[in-house]
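Page 47, continued from p. 46.
Same chain as before, 280 aa.
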Amino acid sequence: MIINGETKKKSFDGTKEIRLAPKTLSGIRGLLRKDISNTLIEFSAYFRELCSKSLRMSDLERLENSIALTLCKLERIFPPTFFDIMVHLSIHLATEAKIAGPVQYIWMYPFERYLRTLKSYVRNNARPEGSIAEGIIAQECNSKIEQLAISDWNRATMCVLKNCEEVSPYVREHIEEVQSKYDSDVELRHEEQFLGWFQAKIAEMFDNQDKTVSQELLGLARGPNKRVNKYTGYLINGFRFHTKEHKKFLKTQNSGVFVQGDDGLTNKKYYGLILDIIEL
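Result:
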């Protein structure tokens, strides 16, 4: 390495420099005695080299010879109760890697940890398979958020707006406007264009300080919030409703509902069960 005196810059002259390897950093240095910390570092380095992606036979033979001495050092530090079968198993791991190859293809620790997770799902020892199946389903439901398509979101919003008396005049106004522009597919165009038209119209009226625009109407025009509160029961006009999930633990049945349908020419009657009670 050559250093220029004027520019203070270094340049490589082709000579080879030999330096010592950097020391392994550890949080236990300075906290424990040197003999204890060095022994623990040796034991950790054994597993670090053994779990590397590529293995050499020379390194495995060195590890096979050094682990016996490392375990003897550990026996001088820890009491006999510390040395169970898992600690003594480490003396065979290097020999096993020489025969079977890299440990990531032969060790069962990841599968054993997953089996421990499955065992934690068991609540009924008489039916362990059913408990594990329900636990996996619950975990998948919690880890994945159901995404509604834009069409489903708009369809649900339209269903709410059509059942609000405040929005009825604007629905009729938009249908008349669509009929004046198009001769066919009036209902389809109304379903597709009403949300944007209604939001723009109410926003314009609000900016012009139109007194007919109430806070409820402004909230309906802005659309529903994607984060809502859910309830298991609802009391309105002296009637009590519960969700289907909640009624499983009750003798009374308050989850059935009746809705008068509006599908154009005929008004059909629809019967169903309440799955969710959502605050809009």
